[in-house]
Amino acid sequence: MTFKHALFFLFVCSTTFADDRPLAVSSPKPNIILIMTDDQGYGDLSSMGNTVLDTPHIDSLARQGAAVDTFYVSPVCSPTRASLMTGRYNYRTRLVDTFKGRSMMEPEEYTIAEALSESGYRTGIYGKWHLGDNYPMRPTDQGFDESLIHLGGGLGQPSEPRENNRRYTNPILFYNNQQIQTYGYCTDVYFDGAISFIDKSLKAERPFFTYIATNAPHSPYHDVPEALYQKYKNRDLSPILLGNDKDSDTVARVFAMNENIDQNVGKLLAHLEKRQIAENTIVIFMVDNGPNTRRYVANSRGKKNEVHDGGIRSPFYIRWPAQLPAGTRVSQIAAHIDVMPTLLEAAQASLPHDHPFDGRSILPLLKGDPVNWPDRSLILQIHRGDEPIPLHHIAVREQRWKLVHPTGFSNSSMPPDVPLELYDMESDPGETKNLFEARPEIAKRLMQTYDRWFADVSNTRPNNYVPPRIVLGTEYETSTTLSAQDRRETKSGGEWLLRFMGKRQYDVEFLWKEPVTDLQLELTIGDVQETLTIDSTTDTARIQKLRIPPGDASLSTRILKGNKKSDPYHIILHRR
After folding, report:
1. For the chain, N or C: smaller number of CB within 10 Å?
2. pLDDT above 90 as % of the chain
3. Contact 43, 291 (CB under 8 A)
4. Is 175 helix (H, G, I), strand (E, B) or coil?
């Protein structure tokens, strides 16, 4: 971070029109704002029957627009994000997990940002990306004109700069891939950046796609808006606590972050009114997975990581006054894979023929148009490990029936003897009565549906689950930071999968969170091997002028003298 970058960010996010007058884009294309929160959960809205939490501004989107009653996402965050950006199941995109080199999306995937950009939209992202930290997988490589994000899975996780020290207040973020210091609570910063982007788009007289993906209310919970925390700390949370009472303080902190999100939604909606663009602006609110503690999820059961409805169901509110009747309720099931085709139809955007969707546009349902809508199957699966295992931690949902095999997200292999479950979701939305043995014909049909799906998504491209490689040596990234987020596990420790373009020299910088001394570290990049020796105490060191041949190579380190705690926090390759 430099002082210049800090000043640049302050300029970007304080951009306003001198007389604060309303400006509207004359284009018939709607503006689009997509808001998705992190770990908020289906029941964390007063409109969902939560009697503890105050979310009046988000609730207003449901009253003033349309709501999908049963809308599905993945059990954890980055698979949802891959499906949201592509309209396709995440297993088609090479993304199979949330970390350890398994959460990078195939660069060849065609994103909603690319499609809308080609249709004349300005595109901006604010908050969480979680589909790759380095070229060619960053938002700016995938269709976004402006990007203000944290790296990896969140603040307080392995990708953040070490000097950020898990801060949500005044966080160090990345503006168009440059590290900058920001000021304010992280959610406030994202919304302020988005509002500035909207104003710049209006000034340019172009429609905009603004993707606001907060990392709140994801953990850690130590840094939350204090006044709101005190409000919920002093409020009786017992009506919504389903777990141990010890969750009370955590939930108070989560709810502080949730109401802060709601306040920012209110600020954003007010800005659209002030600019006189609310009528032709689509505003969507959704979450990425179930709640991060075991708490109220309306008439469902489950939490984040789980494949019962409480872990995979999201509110889906969409307001578009110019087109959608207020108070519309959609009873048909839908999912994250439907968002991109729906928005592209609304924007009258074209799509290449070689990009088949798994989702479908639900715009006719949202408009309340009479439409032939045959039953469909939605399939959700994710678990730890390098490749998906058939039937491991799955949910198969039709309009009425749901097949579940809850074998555990955290298990990289499928545990034996976990029974399959079948539920009639019309009569038993809480998934309490397993009908797997009683209705074998339904169970068999859903199993066959799943088998066809798994074979299809697993054969999307050759070597379908081989991860993308981080590419170095291009004009797009001169310094590449490697963190544990993208390190693949191996028997000997771990490695980063890289691709070097051209024959170039690199300085390799090592950063430690705590000072190290009396250390010997072996660096291996393909066939290149060097030893770093540290005698005096330091938290930074370099190997200089390494000539790396072009081609694919793995980077790994090995401690020759020292202990495991001496593993670098980050490794940065600087192209000379």
Report:
1. C
2. 91
3. yes
4. strand
User: What is the reported pLDDT for 26?
Assistant: 42
Question: Which structure tokens are listed for 546?
Answer: 């390494």
Q: Give the largest CA-CA distance in the chain.
A: 75
Q: Please, what sign has the CA dihedral across residues 345, 346, 352, 356? A: negative
Angle at the Cα of 120 from the Cα atoms of 60 and 82, rounded to 5 degrees: 65
In this predicted structure, what is the pLDDT of residue 234? 97
- Taking the C-alpha atoms of residue 415 and residue 95, their distance in angstroms, rounded to an integer, is 22
Distances (CA, A) of 219 to 32, 55, 168, 186: 28, 20, 10, 13
pLDDT tens-digit series, residues 509-535: 999 999 999 999 999 999 999 999 999
Question: What angle separates helix 186-203 from helix 3-13, to the nearest 10 degrees?
Answer: 60
Comparing CA positions, the residue from 459, 534, 461, 546 lying closest to residue 498 is 546
3-state secondary structure 442-507: HHHHHHHHHHHHHHHHCCCCCCCCCCCCEEECCCCCCEEEECHHHCEEECCEEEEEEEECCCEEEE
> In terms of DSSP H, where are the helices of 119-246?
186-203, 226-233
CB half-sphere exposure, 339, CA atoms < 13 A:
33
CA-based torsion, 338, 342, 345, 349: positive or negative: negative
Burial of 504 (0-12, 13-18, 19+ CB in 10 A): middle
What the block records as the tokens of 143 is 């269709």
pLDDT, one tens digit per residue, over 40-61 is 999 999 999 999 999 999 999 9
- Provide the 8-state DSSP code for 18: T
**Amino acid letter for position 401:** W
> Predicted confidence band at 12 (pLDDT cuts at 50, 70, 90)?
very low
pLDDT score for 2: 39
Compute and round to an integer the Cα radius of gyration of the chain.
Answer: 24
Q: Which DSSP helix (H) or strand (E) runs through 365?
A: helix 363-367
Q: What's the CA angle centered on 42, arms 428 and 234, to 5 degrees? A: 120
Q: Which domains does the chain have, with CATH numbers?
A: 3-14+50-367 (3.40.720.10), 378-457 (3.30.1120.10), 470-575 (2.60.120.260)
Confidence band of 493 (pLDDT split at 50, 70, 90): confident
Beta bridge partners of 472: 500
Tell me how many degrees the CA angle 510-513-515 measures, rounded to the nearest 5.
80
pTM over 0.85: yes
Query: What's the number of CA atoms in the CB half-sphere (13 Å) around residue 566?
Result: 20
**Using CA atoms, how far apart are residues 364 and 362, in angstroms rounded to an integer?**
6
Query: What is the token pair recorded at 205?
Result: 């007289």
Take residue 241 and report the two structure tokens written for it: 């606590």
User: What is the distance between the alpha carbons of residues 229 and 103, in angstroms, rounded to a whole number?
Assistant: 32
Instruction: Please name the residue that has the structure tokens 């907060």.
Output: 214
Q: How far apart are the first and last CA of the chain?
A: 20
Alpha carbons within 13 angstroms on the beta-carbon side of residue 33 total 27
Answer yes or no: are the C-beta atoms of 311 and 302 closer than 8 Å: yes
